[in-house]
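User: Design a sequence. Structure:
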């Protein structure tokens, strides 16, 4: 209903069913759809964050994964406050969630991507628009109510269109766009928290 489905991301929950995060642009909400069957021909939708953003504003860009506790974890950009936020689902269907601001230092959180590290904690890549840099946030707990944030690449205008995964060595691997040089870059984390990386 309405302008829905922007900035979508999907994962498979502990119940074997799809869990989708997306933006309800018309109402300025972050929503989650929990599939009712494996084909996802039906789903239950829930609003998990709302900031009453105006229609014209850039709202939420989201990425979803399943945490070590079996519950959904959504990283997203809060376009009202220009912050990186995370929502930790309260149940498998994510009918409600606990939201936390992880980084509010300037205009941060765009083009976010989330994965679960070898330590069982969330690892989030995102763009720092204020400093035109690639940043990463390492969650301090399963619910990701707080995180350690690090600038990985400040060399020019870099860090948009991020995507993160965990490599065979158990360390984070981030792909992203270098706008200054119109190039594809990758950052290989030097440790589990990704406080350092080789780009």
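Assistant: Done.
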């Amino acid at each position: 209903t309405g302008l829905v489905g922007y900035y979508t991301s999907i994962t498979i929950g502990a119940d074997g069913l799809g869990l989708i995060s997306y933006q309800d642009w018309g109402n300025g909400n972050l929503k989650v759809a929990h599939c009712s069957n494996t084909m996802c021909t039906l789903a239950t939708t829930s609003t998990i964050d709302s900031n009453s953003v105006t229609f014209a504003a850039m709202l939420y860009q989201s990425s979803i994964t399943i945490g070590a506790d079996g519950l959904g974890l959504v990283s997203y950009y809060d376009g009202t406050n220009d912050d990186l936020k995370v929502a930790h689902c309260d149940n498998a269907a994510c009918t409600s969630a606990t939201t936390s601001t992880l980084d509010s230092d300037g205009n941060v959180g765009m083009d976010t991507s989330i994965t679960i590290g070898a330590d069982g904690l969330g690892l989030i890549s995102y763009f720092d628009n204020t400093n035109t840099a690639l940043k990463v946030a390492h969650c301090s707990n399963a619910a990701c109510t707080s995180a350690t944030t690090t600038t990985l690449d400040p060399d020019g205008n870099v860090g948009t269109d991020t995507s993160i995964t965990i490599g065979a060595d158990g360390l984070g691997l981030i792909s992203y766009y270098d706008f200054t040089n119109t190039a594809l870059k990758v950052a290989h984390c030097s440790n589990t928290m990704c406080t350092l990386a080789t780009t």
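Residues 85 and 144 are 10 Å apart (CA to CA). The radius of gyration is 16 Å.
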